[in-house]
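Section handout, structural biology tutorial.
Before the tutorial, make sure you can parse a SMILES string by hand: atoms, branches in parentheses, ring closures as digits. In the record below the ligand is S-adenosylmethionine, and the chain has 353 residues. In the tutorial you will relate the predicted structure tokens back to the input. Do not try to memorize them.
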Amino acid sequence: MPTKLETRHRVFQADARRMEAVADASVHLVVTSPPYPMIAMWDGVFSRQDARIAPALAGGRPREGFERMHALLDPVWQEIHRVLLPGGFACINIGDAVRSFNGEFGLYANHVRTLASLQRIGFTCLPAILWRKPTNAPTKFMGSGVLPAGAYVTLEHEFILIVRKGGKRRFSTEEQQRRRESAIFWEERNIFFSDIWTDIRGAGQAIGGNEPRGRSAAFPSELALRLILMYAIKGDTVLDPFWGTGTTTLAAAAAGRSSIGYEIEPALTRMGARFDAALLAAMQARVRARLERHTLFVRDREARKGPLKYRNRHYGFKVVTRQEQELFFDVPGGFKARSANEITCAYESAPSV
Ligand SMILES: C[S@@+](CC[C@H](N)C(=O)[O-])C[C@H]1O[C@@H](n2cnc3c(N)ncnc32)[C@H](O)[C@@H]1O
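Predicted structure of the complex:
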């Protein structure tokens, strides 16, 4: 029988540069997106943490501002290295910035600076994902006109940096069973492990009606969900040190993983408010959508290439590989508030298809 699951979700209103409530080597995965240095909407957040930043920007010293902002993120990267288990992954969504200072337009390469810091701390750097958000707007060239050397290429992508603490994770016998139940479908694997994601937009695919990246700077829940399905097994703990609106926690609960969040802004750290009946229904719908997509995939694949060889043991549907035979869905069945900043989630088994 598949493992009976309950997950726990906590958020701490505190500075992620010191995550005192999180023990060394106790987290399996980090999924996060920091405030982006040199993007104007985050100037205030950085300046409140280092009073030298605002004068550097106002005084036309952008390189100094850029470096001071990253110097505030570096201790958080050091902390995630401390709390991750050996073999645990960290996935960091970050975009570069373009901005003019002293009449000069330039790129501030946040992903380069962040990766260099992660490497210095001792993380193993792995191939990154380039997330290019689909847009219906006509391409916005930066600069002027159609004459050569008059325009800059557009900046419509962000990165998901992927690093690991040391070598491959070792799984205990009990974890090996949960790992088999956490398999993703073969056809999902082909999309998730591609180095360019072009199919994730902010709205539409969200669990619980997240805003697209905008004033809240939330990332789409689909982005967090994918990374969690790729790099954590059921029952694992996922940490987001820059919790924001809690997208990582929503995705973790939907996927049957526990979560911990840190968020410096008091107004954001109210966990209970979002975990309502509508969110539960959205999470259940997300599991059903996964199953329905798989059914369509099997129909199409068998029509083109003939019968598939394997069947899933729990549901009886066909699968491409032997490793998908024990895949098992845990569907969120109810939330319980344990305190203002902690909830637990219980699960039911998925309806058969
Ligand atoms: C880009 S947003 C994260 C958005 C989040 N991924 C979501 O989906 O809502 C970055 C967040 O980090 C928070 N923050 C900035 N510095 C922090 C620090 N030192 N410790 C904890 N949180 C911090 C900001 O208040 C902001 O909410």
